[in-house]
């Protein structure tokens, strides 16, 4: 200031300006921002499917199967003054995210906060790799650090659970991880489910001197916890830092829709990130409100709103129908549709059969869509499955599949009668199975518990149906989703396998060898967790799980039991190793079964679930063993023990290798 007063000569002013600009340069390269909304923010670097959706960043595109997206701040953050400098800058960031699955029980993916020297890390894969990491078993050192908010458990990456926070140093296998939650004011750990759609606030502090990451999470509305959820210090972090890096987010998915959103974000590399104002953030919640409503008042409000919406929608619908007239009902048929064999029903026929797809006719809904009960004009009872699909291309390929599937006929397969398409909705018409699915009779409905004799007969039925798919047809048909809820019971309580081929509709992806997640958690063979495509051996694995659940009267994954019993296969395998496999049998039907029979089914279940697909029996062998016959081919080592009924030798089955 004194200098200015003295009216210095021009040269001095220039010198001062130069000096100032030199001083100013580092502070210009300092990065500091706080975005309480992304509305109007047009300078983010959005990669692949990431986009700004009104005021939030949406990371993936629901209609692309192997979708991934990354969103970066447009400029790199200086991390070191020179590439050989050992001094690393610190930074502080805070953001609000929401992870909302379409189906709560589907496999989860999550979201990662990323630091990387490029916006396109080499070899990045979608699905469980966050659209960020490669599948290389030991990735080489590359400037890529992520803090993952992982909502799925991938045992092959040693994930601790399906809801954890981890530090990833250019490796999908976390250097450190901990269950998601926070320490409240009294120091107690409060778990936090990240996959509910609720808005979650995260704070990440990186100390460049100490090489430490502190990660803290809490639901929006809860004050910032003073103790971080995860504090990780590691000198190796320095190897993964380059002189400047992009900061941002990355997420990916497969078949299952999981909406990963970032709602607000602040960052500073020169002090604490500014506080975000979370008061007016949008809230994303599951459409179906059935999950955890214990509160009657909330339920009442929800039902009230629902009724209101239904009335409005019905009024609008009636108005629309009147306006558009009936000609719209006869949607034009694409010529390729004529090529397909099974009977094509008209939409009106199915609509009137199912009471206009009324709620009271709804039999169930699941990953593939809704199923309605209907009565055709000729009085036959049918089940109509409505499958939504966005791409006509996929639909067409699928129809080719269905039309060949429609020719498959076997007493133990649920017969498809025909189909109908309306827009992007495909309706498949099946024989109606009055007794519902097997799971209801084994564990969902204890009052109608199924006896052993019937259970055994159903297992034989299903094994025969699957054997037909694998061996009874000129091409091997892989079911891909064998599970007790896909086993339906006819009026005589005979078992029939349903839904075959349907999984294929969801398997037309750009990365064919990552179709692994098609299927149902708990029934998936371990080799599908890596990148193999489904085979008849993986069907055998799923059938093995069915054998065990029927024999033990338990779901494949039961969370309400002691930890060592959670995973059915592991539990039975352990009992088997101790020589007391019979203890796993369903205690509620004790005395009904021949001990030898039961033991055989349990061991057969384990053999089918052998970690090595090569060593699993074929369905042919399974059928023979269940019927008490000698297997058609020379029994292999695993089977010989079963056939002889022994059990006193060393267990032929190794526990799953630690993947
Ligand atoms: C990007 O846009 C945001 C808000 O529009 C602004 O605060 C920020 O400074 C911009 N950053 C760059 C590097 O242009
Ligand atoms: C998602 O992807 C599809 C096709 O790949 C595209 O047509 C659609 O516009 C995308 N949706 C959004 C919201 O970007
Ligand atoms: C970095 O390396 C260059 C040449 O390799 C050297 O000239 C420079 O002094 C080094 N800088 C530091 C800070 O070590
Ligand atoms: C980089 O250099 C500037 C000025 O030259 C200094 O203020 C800053 O602390 C240095 N940063 C690191 C990480 O060494
Ligand atoms: C990122 O780092 C890697 C390894 O150090 C280097 O090969 C690559 O050129 C860097 N990329 C960019 C864009 O700086
Ligand atoms: C990694 O993925 C690529 C492409 O999906 C595939 O070709 C390769 O076999 C996979 N490698 C491993 C080790 O799984
Ligand atoms: C912290 O959590 C524990 C256990 O949930 C609870 O008992 C305690 O009251 C909580 N403390 C505060 C200050 O909320
Ligand atoms: C990280 O957390 C530890 C343990 O609570 C604390 O001692 C340290 O000061 C924190 N560091 C930063 C940069 O917040
Ligand atoms: C947060 O934003 C709301 C309006 O969006 C405003 O009323 C409120 O004062 C803000 N709170 C703070 C702490 O800035």
UniProtKB/TrEMBL annotation:
GO biological process, one term: defense response to oomycetes
Record GO cellular component, one term: plasma membrane
Residues bound to ATP: 385
InterPro entries in the cross-refs: ConA-like_dom_sf (IPR013320), Kinase-like_dom_sf (IPR011009), L-type_Lectin-RKs (IPR050528), Lectin_legB_Mn/Ca_BS (IPR019825), Legume_lectin_dom (IPR001220), Prot_kinase_dom (IPR000719), Protein_kinase_ATP_BS (IPR017441), Ser/Thr_kinase_AS (IPR008271)
Class of enzymatic activity (EC top level): transferase
EC number: 2.7.11.1
Reactions this protein catalyses: L-threonyl-[protein] + ATP = O-phospho-L-threonyl-[protein] + ADP + H(+); L-seryl-[protein] + ATP = O-phospho-L-seryl-[protein] + ADP + H(+)
CDD domains noted in UniProt: lectin_legume_LecRK_Arcelin_ConA, STKc_IRAK
Residue span of region Disordered: 632-659
Gene3D superfamilies assigned: 2.60.120.200, Phosphorylase Kinase, domain 1, Transferase(Phosphotransferase) domain 1
Residues spanning the signal sequence: 1-30
GO MF annotation list: ATP binding; carbohydrate binding; protein serine/threonine kinase activity
Pfam families reported in the protein's UniProt record: Lectin_legB, Pkinase
Subcellular compartments: Cell membrane
Keyword field contains Cell membrane: yes
Glycoprotein found in the keyword field: yes
Membrane topology: Single-pass type I membrane protein
Official protein name in the record: non-specific serine/threonine protein kinase
């Amino acid at each position: 200031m004194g200098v200015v007063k003295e009216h210095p000569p021009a040269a001095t002013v220039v010198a001062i300006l130069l000096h100032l600009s030199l001083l100013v340069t580092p502070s210009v390269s300092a990065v500091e921002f706080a975005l309480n909304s992304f509305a109007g923010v047009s300078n983010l670097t959005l990669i692949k499917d990431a986009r700004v959706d009104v005021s939030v960043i949406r990371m993936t595109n629901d209609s692309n199967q192997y979708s991934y997206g990354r969103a970066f701040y447009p400029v790199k953050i200086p991390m070191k003054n020179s590439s050989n400098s050992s001094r690393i800058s610190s930074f502080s960031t805070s953001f609000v995210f929401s992870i909302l699955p379409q189906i709560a029980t589907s496999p989860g993916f999550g979201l990662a906060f990323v630091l990387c020297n490029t916006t396109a890390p080499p070899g990045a894969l979608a699905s469980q790799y966050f659209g960020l990491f490669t599948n290389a078993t030991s990735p080489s050192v590359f400037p890529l650090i992520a803090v993952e908010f992982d909502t799925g458990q991938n045992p092959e990456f040693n994930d601790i659970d399906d809801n954890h926070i981890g530090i990833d140093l250019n490796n999908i296998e976390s250097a450190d991880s901990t269950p998601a939650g926070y320490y409240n004011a009294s120091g107690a750990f409060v778990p936090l489910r990240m996959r509910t759609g609720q808005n979650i606030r995260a704070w990440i502090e990186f100390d460049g001197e100490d090489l430490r990451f502190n990660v803290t999470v809490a639901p929006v509305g809860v004050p910032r916890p003073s103790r971080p959820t995860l504090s990780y210090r590691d000198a190796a972090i320095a190897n993964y830092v380059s002189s400047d890096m992009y900061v941002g987010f990355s997420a990916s998915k497969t078949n299952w829709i999981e909406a990963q959103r970032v709602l607000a974000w602040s960052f500073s590399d020169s002090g604490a990130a500014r506080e975000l104002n979370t008061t007016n953030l949008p809230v994303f919640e599951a459409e179906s409100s059935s999950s955890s409503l214990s509160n009657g008042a909330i339920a009442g409000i929800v039902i009230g709103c629902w009724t209101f919406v239904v009335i409005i929608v019905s009024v609008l619908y009636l108005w629309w129908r009147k306006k558009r007239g009936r000609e719209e009902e006869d949607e034009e048929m694409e010529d390729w549709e004529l090529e397909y064999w099974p009977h094509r029903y008209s939409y009106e026929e199915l609509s009137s059969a199912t009471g206009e797809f009324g709620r009271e006719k709804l039999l169930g809904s699941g990953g593939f869509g809704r199923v309605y009960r209907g009565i055709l004009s000729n009085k036959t009872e049918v089940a109509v499955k409505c499958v939504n699909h966005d791409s006509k291309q996929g639909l067409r390929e699928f129809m080719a599949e269905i039309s060949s599937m429609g020719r498959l006929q076997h007493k133990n397969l649920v017969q498809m009668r025909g189909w109908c398409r309306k827009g992007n909705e495909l309706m498949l018409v099946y024989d109606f199975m009055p007794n519902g699915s097997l799971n209801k009779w084994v564990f969902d409905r204890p009052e109608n518990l199924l006896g052993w004799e019937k259970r055994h007969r159903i297992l034989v039925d299903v094994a025969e149906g699957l054997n037909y798919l694998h061996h009874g047809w000129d091409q091997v048909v892989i079911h891909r989703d064998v599970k007790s809820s896909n086993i339906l019971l006819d009026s005589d309580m005979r078992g029939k396998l349903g839904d075959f081929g349907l999984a294929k509709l969801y398997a037309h992806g750009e990365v064919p060898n990552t179709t692994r997640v098609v299927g149902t958690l708990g029934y998936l063979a371990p080799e599908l967790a890596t990148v193999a495509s489904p085979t008849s051996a993986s069907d055998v694995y799923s059938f093995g799980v069915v054998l065990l659940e029927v024999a033990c009267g338990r779901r494949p994954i039961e969370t309400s039991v002691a930890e060592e019993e959670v995973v059915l296969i592991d539990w039975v395998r352990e009992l088997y190793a101790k020589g007391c496999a019979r203890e796993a049998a369903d205690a509620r039907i004790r005395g009904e079964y021949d001990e030898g029979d039961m033991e055989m089914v349990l061991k057969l279940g384990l053999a089918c679930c052998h970690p090595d697909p090569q060593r699993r029996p074929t369905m042919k062998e399974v059928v023979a063993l269940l019927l008490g016959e000698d297997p058609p081919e020379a029994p292999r080592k695993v089977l010989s023990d079963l056939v002889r009924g022994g059990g006193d030798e060393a267990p032929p089955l190794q526990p799953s290798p630690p993947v």
